[in-house]
Amino acid sequence: MKFNLVTIFPDLVNNFIEHGLFAKAINNSLIEVKAWDPREFSGNKDGRIDDKPFGGGQGMLFQPEPIINTVNEIKKHNKTHVIFVAPHGTIFNQKKAIDLKAYENITIVCGRYEGIDKRIEETCIDEVISIGDYVLNGGELAAFVLMEAIARQHKDFIGNKESLNDSFSDGLLEHPQYTRPEKNASWECARNINQWKS
Ligand SMILES: C[S@@+](CC[C@H](N)C(=O)[O-])C[C@H]1O[C@@H](n2cnc3c(N)ncnc32)[C@H](O)[C@@H]1O
């Protein structure tokens, strides 16, 4: 399974995948993650990727060429399902993560600033996904959420397959869990105090 993240901050991606189960999955060649910087495919000598919105408005938008060129470059190497993460997309959930697992190769376009020129969406995006009804500075965190939730569905991503019986796997939340010792006088005491308070 391969993820391509289109981002003006490739280091964020490279840092994220250096940790935990992602690092392990990449070392074991189970998953591949590549950050693509649209500045490298901007088509102009300055590597410029943004411009003011045509017709006015605040902030800056990603121009079409750098993003479309980057997605086309990715498509030269692999057939890929292209997602744009944005607040106006379909809300992401566990079912969507399971559905997306069917794609061997996923590209996630991460917006920044005021967002992206709408023509990018019309030209090279297969679907738009939101991670919730709030606004983030950029799409990278949303892309990590998608990538991690999808990767966890891969049968070998989590060493212990029983762990896949997590919350939402059967439409329900997981039951509360405890570590040993079963009884501890000081915790019991704190627990009782908290119960009296509420
Ligand atoms: C500051 S936001 C732009 C918000 C946009 N002007 C709007 O009002 O919908 C910059 C980028 O962050 C990402 N983003 C922000 N909130 C998000 C969310 N809830 N889900 C997914 N991506 C989000 C998108 O890629 C977006 O293009």
Distance between the first and last residues' Cα: 48 Å
CATH domain fold name? Alpha/beta knot
Question: Regarding quaternary structure, how should these chains be classified?
Answer: single chain
Based on CA atoms alone, the radius of gyration comes out at 21 Å
The overall pLDDT average reads 94
Query: How many beta-strand elements?
Result: 7
Strand residues, percent = 15-25%
Architecture, CATH level 2? Answer: 3-Layer(aba) Sandwich
Please trace the helix and strand order, writing H or E for each element. Answer: EHHEEEHEHEHEHH
- Strands of the largest sheet, in order across it? 2-1-6-5-7
Low-confidence stretches: none
Describe this structure in words.
With 198 residues, the protein is α/β, with parallel strands linked by helices. The chain has a single domain (2-164), classed as 3-Layer(aba) Sandwich (Alpha/beta knot), CATH 3.40.1280. Helix content is 34%, strand content 18%. Strands 2-1-6-5-7 form a 5-stranded parallel beta sheet, sandwiched between helices. Strands 3-4 form a two-stranded antiparallel ribbon. Helix 4 links the parallel strand 5 and strand 6. Helix 3 (64-77) packs parallel to helix 5. It is globular. Residues 85-88, 110-112, 114-116, 130-132, 134-139, 142 line the site of S-adenosylmethionine.
What does the secondary structure layout of this molecule look like, with pairings?
Layout: E1 2-6, H1 10-16, H2 20-27, E2 32-36, E3 50-51, E4 61-62, H3 64-77, E5 81-91, H4 94-100, E6 105-110, H5 118-124, E7 127-130, H6 140-151, H7 185-197
Parallel strand pairs: 1-2, 1-6, 5-6, 5-7
Antiparallel strand pairs: 3-4
The structure holds S-adenosylmethionine.
S-adenosylmethionine binds next to β5.
